Amino acid sequence: MHTPDNDPQRAEPLPLDEAARRILDEGTGLGRQLAALWQAHSELFRAELALSRSTLLRLGLYALVTLALAGSAWLCLLAALIGGLLALGCPGWLAALLTALLLLSGTLICLLLARRLLPDLGFRHSRDALRQLVTKANTETEARQ
Prior knowledge:
Elements: H1 16-87, H2 92-117, H3 123-144
Helix pairs in contact: 1-2
């Protein structure tokens, strides 16, 4: 049931100064809400940035400690291998050579595995696209001359 106050067809239009005052009040209220929202957003962003920076620093520290410990363990393993070969009666140069060959073979295996992954990264397509761009640029440069 409609009353005369809220029926849009029977409502009397507001005077122009009253309508302008209401629009100004609503706009001012909206502006205050937007300013409060912006303030809350900026505080949240600063807090997130502080947490991210702290996390990134901790992650870097853990990565450095991990690399130092892994490197130390690797050096101990190599020293134990050389010591074991020397204890078995191998000359020092042969023990060092066998250890170096072991490291070289491990490096080659890792390189072959990495090379197998390169097509998945789109390297071949990127290389072909780069070659086409360079060829096109050279052709355009020669055409201008």
